[in-house]
Design brief:
- The structure is a single chain.
- The protein is an alpha/beta fold and 308 residues long.
- It has a single domain, classed as Rossmann fold, CATH 3.40.50.
- A six-stranded mixed sheet has the order 1-6-5-2-4-3, sandwiched between helices.
- The mean pLDDT is 94.
- Bound molecules: adenosine monophosphate (AMP) and magnesium ion (MG).
- The site of magnesium ion has 3 residues, from loops.
Length: 308
Amino acid sequence: MDAVQDVARTLDLSPKQVRKLLDRFRVTRGKGFRLKDHDPADTAGHLITPQQAHHMLGAGVERLAELQEKLYAQDRWSVLCVFQAIDAAGKDGTIKHVMSGVNPAGVQVTSFKVPGPEELAHDFLWRSVRALPPRGRIGIFNRSHYEDVLVVRVHPEILERQRLPRELIGRKLWDQRLRAIAGFERYLARQGTVVLKFFLHLSKEEQKRRFLARLDEPDKHWKFSTADLAERDHWDAYQAAYQAAIAATAAPDAPWFVVPADNKWFTRLIVGAALIEALDKLDLRIPPLDAVAEARLAAARARLEAER
Ligand code: AMP
Ligand code: MG
């Protein structure tokens, strides 16, 4: 069964609907890419209702668990999912929900924070390399090497802390970094790491609503940081940096999904479907045993059965 058919069966949609759904948000070439062409409130023309989505997500989570087990058993491919977004777009919640069914032993989540002294003493890709998933595992990057062409680009004073030699800082710095990222991801793809990148695309109005909701509910106060509000003042600069990053690094073997983030149920559905499709394409199989291994199992059975 091909990947799209499996996603379709799992989500109770037709293969055509699934292909349309994912192709709508998948970006594999940067030429002409504009964030403005993507609506954060898009829910694919009411193809799916939130109630349906709830059920679909449940089925998707189960399917993902099966695929992840095979990925682990086969031990050839690894999967890297990069999550990038503006504050309050729902990265954490999406990761939590989509991965809720998979065996924690097969998944590693890395949250990239403001770099510390050891990280600042290295090149910007260093900490991402250290956090890459080994074969058989799914690695989730909650933020990533992209921060170095996003937050650092929006706040060039952060670049100072990276202590690059002066003569290496020129006008082309951001393009050079973007090209380095594209090369890095192509390298990973050729080493057997499936690279998927998700940009959760939130509208400025919805961010305001979510910030206010955090302020309204004492249980959500911990999620609110005044620093996030300060970043909101740089909204346009961030959108420009995201657009440039996506345009420069979208590739068939390292696609971006520009996922509408104004409706959480829809965000989760698209991320889940994209992951299932990507794993399905790998044609994962539990590796068959050779005759020697089979004989060893038969001997083990005989020994256990002979026990009194
Ligand atoms: P949070 O994800 O809310 O815990 O916040 C992490 C913070 O770390 C965000 O404000 C990011 O912009 C920031 N951050 C992550 N990577 C970098 C980086 N390479 N340079 C500067 N700040 C970063
Ligand atoms: Mg935050």
